Every structure is written in structure tokens, then in C-alpha cells.
């Protein structure tokens, strides 16, 4: 209920955690206060990032140029007959399937306009029916996907979340999915890591689904592409880096956990826990102590946190279109295709002897094609091979999904500790992985058809496997001549060649 005291609080802050499922990307925060709800929002209004005196004029922003518009306690300061014009302008800038988020004082719990109480700028009493009627005059399709009447604690407001559709065929679409029956059992799973982390977390999802849970998966925008077609996930909540500031993630998780019957938060389940980060004390433990307490298999530990049993079944789900594309690519290249994942996310995840091995493959296996993949930075590792017809330089050209789909149809996959290798771990194709900061027990224990290469005992980095996260060379031994981690340099050309030859000979015998 409203009171003078609780009305002095920042109104938008009361609803901020409810916005997270809808606020990924470019968000306009239209209001009259000086505070933005989240740092990545673009504040519109007096004393904001963009100083506008007329909230019905967003001409600075192109049609469909924003992912969402949020406004708290602003619409009620406009005469009701002007609402359709204002809402139309707000909806204009929202992309297809973007969101309009409204937080407004509830007429049932807020002083009436003209009563002399409450905000003197309050001109219109707000009800659910009034908002829906005004939105009905907006010439755009929409779905009211969430509605909350929030009158507990210090709140006295209504929350609306609309999905905008637009387009001539959907112009008059009006849906109210917030009224649909709610799932009887719900589970929230959080994994904000990169490609490999998300693939590892996919192992628990079939079990949760078999237990009858409706699964909401919280992931980063970086990790989302590799899991977006997992059939066990009912809803995604995607967060960009820093959209919920790191110092507030704990508060957000505490708030959100209460919405679910089961809560599985895998944040830092590998990083910081099994791989030490430089700002955690275990980074500076003796290496033998990290080996004793942190040598846990990543997927096994993920299952323990989720309280689900084996078997372990992480999986990348390619679409039918991706499968067909991959098969066509494989046929176009040649009889035997080797997919090489060039580099991972850290400085130590590059094997430095690539050129020598590629030259040897070209000389000794005339029917073999090598497809090099990675991000745009990996293109430097492809230098010099652009003119070789059996070496296909695809770093920065193929998406991670294309690389993972191709892994399903190739003959051999080679790489360091990368997301692609994690995805391939349970595929039938043979894998050769060069380990750096992980042990075989931690990473490859449950992989199928894998050859693990590590620096020989007694040479190279004395810490390998160090079980440390490295973002620079401060605590990672660098081989100055090759510019790679010492642990990778010491995996010799002959070790790699023996592994490749054994796989190709095996596949040749199978084909015969």
C-alpha cells in the first residue's frame, strides 16, 4: 500500500529484478527521475542520457531500433486521452518480438488524481482495463505476456510486459498469454558461461525434464547460440555481459530463486570452484593441493549440483537444416575431413605446431581435407594456407553452430580445451585434444572416442595441469619462441602425428 514514506523510494528499483527476462539488448528507460534502472539502459527524460521534454517524441530513434522500452510511473502523468499516441510512439521503436514494460501506480492502492495526496503530477488513475484499452488503439500486434498486481511490502503498482509483433499480417493480433495455465513444476537453471560451459550443463536437462519440470534456462548471450534448440528447455532468459552488474548478481539470484520449485545455479561451478580464478585464494594454493581438492570431473560435478544421477549426456542439438548443410559441405570437401578448432578463450588454448602438421597431412594423406575454425582472432593462425585447396580457412566465417554441426559429420576433430571440443565430446567422431589447465579426469573422462595429449611428464610447465584460469601471461608459462603456453609447446609434432595417423588408419580399416 502507498504511504508518504515508501513513496520516497526509487519506484523503478522496486521492479528491477522482474525486468531481467525482458531487458537484453538496447533498452530505453523513459522516465522523469534522474536514476536509470540498469546501467546499460538508455535514459530518456529530464536529467537523463537523452534529454527529452516530450515522451511522445522518440524521433531520435529509428523504427524497430530498440529491444525494449521500460517506463515507471510516467504514463500516469499524462492525460488518458493522450496515452494511445504516446504508446504508439514507444512501440514504434521496439523491434519485432521486443518488449514494452510498464510499471504504474495502481488506482486501487494509490491516491486518486486531484486528491492532493501522492505525486502532484499524477493526472490519471491507472487500472488494468485502461492500459489494455489504450494498447488496443496501437496499430501493432501484441501479447500481454505478464501482468502482476504488486501491492505487498512497499509497492502499490501494476506491472505489464507486452511482446510487440507488428507487421501487416499481425497488425490486429491481441493475445493475453499471462492468463495461460502455469506449469505445475518449475525449475530454473543458471549457466552464464561460454560455449563449453553451456554444453556441459545440457547434460542435466533430460533428467530434469523426465522429473516433470518446466525448465527456464538463464544463459549469457555468448552461450545462448549453442543451446538455443535444446528440446528440454521451455524458456530462455538471456543476459549480456554486465547487464545485471556482477556485484548485484547474488541479490538477483536470491530474488529469482523464490519463483521456482527447484533452483540449479551453476555459476562458478567450474570457474572459481574447479578452475581457480586469480582473485580467489585457491589460485595461490600449492599445485598439489589444487590437484587434491579440485580434480573433479566437470559434468559429474554439474550433476551433483543439480541432484540428478548419471548417465551423462551433454548434447548439441543441430537443426535439420544445419545437418543437411553439414552433410553437403562434407561431401564437397572430400573423402576424409579433419575439423581443427584453432583456439579457445584463454591464452594457453592454442597448439603452436599447426603449420608443420598441416604440411605433413597434405603430403601423406592426399584424400584428406582440413577445415580450420575459430573466431576472427583465429584467422591469424590460418595465415599462409589460404591458397591450399585442401585446407579450408573458416575462422570468423563459420558460426559456432556451423562448426558444431560439421563436427557431427567429419572424421576427426582436433583442438585444445574449447567449446567446440566440449560439444564434440559425446559425438561418435574421433577427437584429439591437447590439455592445458584441465586434467583428463576433469574434462575427457566421459568423452567418446578420444585421444588425450599432454606434455610429457618431467618437462615443460611444472604445474600442468594447473587448474587455474588464465586471462594473460602473469601466472602462465609462455614459450617465447612460439608465443604459446609451454604446456602446449611440449606436446610435440610427433605426438600429434602419431595420434592423427592412428585415427586415420583406424577409419581406413573401417571403411575397407
Notable features of this structure?
single chain; 512 residues; alpha/beta; seven-stranded mixed beta sheet; six-stranded parallel beta sheet; 19 strands; 19% strand; elongated
Written account of the structure:
- It is a single chain.
- This protein has helices at 16-19, 83-92, 128-135, 195-201, 205-210, 224-227, 249-257, 287-294, 298-306, 320-333, 354-364, 400-407, 419-424, 440-443, 486-489, 493-511; strands at residues 27-30, 42-44, 66-72, 94-105, 142-150, 157-164, 174-175, 186-191, 214-220, 235-239, 262-265, 336-341, 368-373, 391-393, 412-415, 430-434, 450-453, 478-479, 484-485.
- The protein is an alpha/beta fold.
- The strands form 4 sheets. The protein has a 7-stranded mixed sheet. Strands 14-13-12-15-16-17 form a 6-stranded parallel sheet, sandwiched between helices.
- Helix 10 packs across helix 12 (400-407).
- The chain is elongated, with a radius of gyration of 27 Å.
Amino acid at each position: 500500500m502507498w504511504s508518504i514514506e515508501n513513496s520516497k523510494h526509487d519506484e523503478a528499483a522496486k521492479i528491477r529484478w522482474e525486468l531481467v527476462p525482458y531487458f537484453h539488448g538496447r533498452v530505453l528507460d523513459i522516465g522523469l527521475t534522474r536514476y536509470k534502472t540498469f546501467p546499460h539502459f538508455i535514459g530518456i527524460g529530464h536529467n537523463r542520457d537523452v534529454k527529452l521534454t516530450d515522451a511522445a517524441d522518440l524521433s531520435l530513434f529509428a523504427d524497430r531500433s530498440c529491444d525494449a522500452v521500460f517506463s515507471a510511473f510516467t504514463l500516469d502523468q499524462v492525460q488518458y486521452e493522450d496515452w494511445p499516441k504516446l504508446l504508439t510512439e514507444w512501440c514504434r521503436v521496439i523491434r519485432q518480438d521486443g518488449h514494452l514494460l510498464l510499471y504504474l501506480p495502481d488506482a486501487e492502492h494509490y491516491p486518486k488524481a486531484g486528491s492532493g495526496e501522492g505525486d502532484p503530477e499524477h493526472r490519471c488513475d491507472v487500472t488494468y482495463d485502461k492500459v489494455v484499452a489504450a494498447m488496443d488503439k496501437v496499430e501493432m500486434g501484441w501479447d500481454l505476456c505478464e501482468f502482476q498486481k504488486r501491492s505487498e511490502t512497499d509497492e502499490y503498482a501494476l506491472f505489464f510486459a507486452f511482446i510487440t509483433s507488428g507487421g501487416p499480417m499481425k497488425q490486429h493480433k491481441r493475445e493475453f498469454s499471462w492468463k495461460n495455465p502455469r506449469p505445475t513444476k518449475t525449475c530454473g537453471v543458471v549457466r552464464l558461461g561460454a560455449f563449453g560451459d553451456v554444453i556441459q550443463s545440457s547434460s542435466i536437462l533430460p533428467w530434469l525434464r523426465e522429473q516433470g519440470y518446466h525448465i527456464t534456462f538463464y544463459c549469457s548471450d555468448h552461450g545462448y547460440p549453442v543451446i538455443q534448440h535444446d528440446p528440454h528447455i521451455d524458456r530462455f532468459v538471456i543476459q549480456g555481459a554486465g547487464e545485471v552488474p556482477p556485484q548485484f548478481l547474488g541479490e538477483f539470484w536470491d530474488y529469482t530463486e523464490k519463483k521456482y520449485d527447484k533452483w540449479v545455479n551453476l555459476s562458478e561451478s567450474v570457474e572459481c570452484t574447479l578452475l581457480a580464478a586469480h582473485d580467489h585464494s585457491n589460485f595461490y594454493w600449492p599445485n598439489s593441493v589444487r590437484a587434491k581438492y579440485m580434480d573433479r570431473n566437470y559434468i559429474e560435478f554439474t550433476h551433483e549440483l543439480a541432484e540428478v544421477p548419471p548417465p551423462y549426456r551433454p548434447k548439441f542439438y543441430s537443426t535439420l537444416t544445419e545437418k543437411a548443410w553439414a552433410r553437403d559441405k562434407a561431401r564437397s570437401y572430400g573423402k576424409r575431413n579433419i575439423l581443427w578448432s584453432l583456439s579457445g578463450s584463454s591464452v594457453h588454448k592454442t597448439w603452436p605446431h599447426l603449420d608443420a602438421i598441416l604440411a605433413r597431412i597434405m603430403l601423406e594423406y592426399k584424400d584428406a581435407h582440413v577445415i580450420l575454425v575459430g573466431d576472427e582472432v583465429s584467422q591469424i593462425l590460418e595465415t599462409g594456407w589460404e591458397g591450399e585447396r585442401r585446407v579450408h580457412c573458416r575462422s570468423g566465417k563459420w558460426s559456432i553452430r556451423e562448426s558444431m554441426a560439421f563436427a557431427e559429420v567429419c572424421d576427426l576433430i582436433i583442438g585444445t580445451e574449447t567449446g567446440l571440443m566440449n560439444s564434440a565430446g559425446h559425438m561418435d567422431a574421433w577427437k584429439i585434444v591437447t590439455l592445458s589447465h584441465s586434467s583428463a579426469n576433469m574434462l575427457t573422462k566421459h568423452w567418446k572416442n578420444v585421444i588425450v595429449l599432454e606434455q610429457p611428464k618431467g618437462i615443460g610447465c611444472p604445474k600442468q595441469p594447473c587448474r587455474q584460469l588464465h586471462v594473460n601471461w602473469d601466472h602462465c608459462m609462455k614459450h617465447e619462441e612460439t608465443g604459446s603456453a609451454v604446456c602446449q609447446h611440449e606436446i610435440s609434432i610427433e605426438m600429434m602425428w602419431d595420434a592423427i595417423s592412428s585415427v586415420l588408419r583406424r577409419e581406413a580399416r573401417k571403411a575397407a
